[in-house]
Write a structure and sequence with these properties.
2 strands; about 200 residues; about 0% strand; single chain; two-stranded antiparallel sheet; mainly alpha; 8 helices; Arp2/3 complex 21 kDa subunit ARPC3
Length: about 200
């Protein structure tokens, strides 16, 4: 398993443009599938979905740049008309909806996590990956409520009530799951000239 994982990540790093683009499109599609696993709550216009699971998974599998590109593809192709946003929606209407800030947050979060995963071996352990994902999720929340603030005349407490608090339990569960997956599949040795390639780690 460890050997196969290393071979995949090494291949992924050395893959040509077409192969990387195919992987990015696959994770964009996965994000679209996860968007359909949703729960609507009566006090928030933003549904609870499995999207962040796919976003973080794309980052730990595709790494620097291509995890973020997968989310750029998801958002841009959705705006272009592919109906893979939550509720099988697509098109320019999302630009006027309450979820656009979160979609932009997906891109930022995937670039951030992917960069750290590829750049630092120390970021690939559960005890480091978990807080990294927490911070990335905070970036999603921040952009999400900033967008909501443009649409709803609410104070910060109101914005938190509709744009952050309902999602915390589910997001914590998704972050725990992705952290465990990352710990299991990401090789703990260098495959692309990591900044800390010569350091020895004794982490979980």
């Amino acid at each position: 398993m460890i050997y196969l994982s290393y071979r995949f990540y090494r291949w992924r790093y050395e893959a040509n443009f077409e192969q990387k683009l195919a992987l990015a499109l696959a994770f964009a599609a996965l994000t679209g599938i996860c968007a359909q696993i949703r729960l609507y709550l009566p006090w928030t216009p933003v549904p609870v979905t499995m999207q962040t699971f796919a976003v973080f998974l794309s980052a730990i599998v595709l790494g620097r740049n291509w995890g973020g590109i997968s989310q750029i593809l998801y958002v841009s192709l959705g705006i272009a008309g592919i109906p893979w946003f939550s509720g099988f929606k697509g098109g320019f209407a999302v630009l006027q909806g309450p979820t656009m800030g979160y979609l932009l947050g997906f891109i930022v979060a995937a670039f951030l996590v992917g960069f750290l995963i590829d750049r630092y071996i120390g970021a690939r352990y559960f005890v480091t990956l978990f807080p990294i994902l927490l911070f990335a999720n905070l970036c999603i929340y921040t952009l999400g409520i900033l967008w909501l603030s443009l649409m709803y005349p609410l104070d910060i407490y109101g914005l938190l009530a509709i744009g952050v608090i309902p999602f915390i339990p589910g997001d914590l569960a998704k972050i725990l799951a992705v952290s465990a997956i990352g710990r299991a599949i990401i090789p703990k040795r260098a495959y692309n000239g990591e900044a800390d390639a010569f350091r020895t780690y004794r982490l979980l």
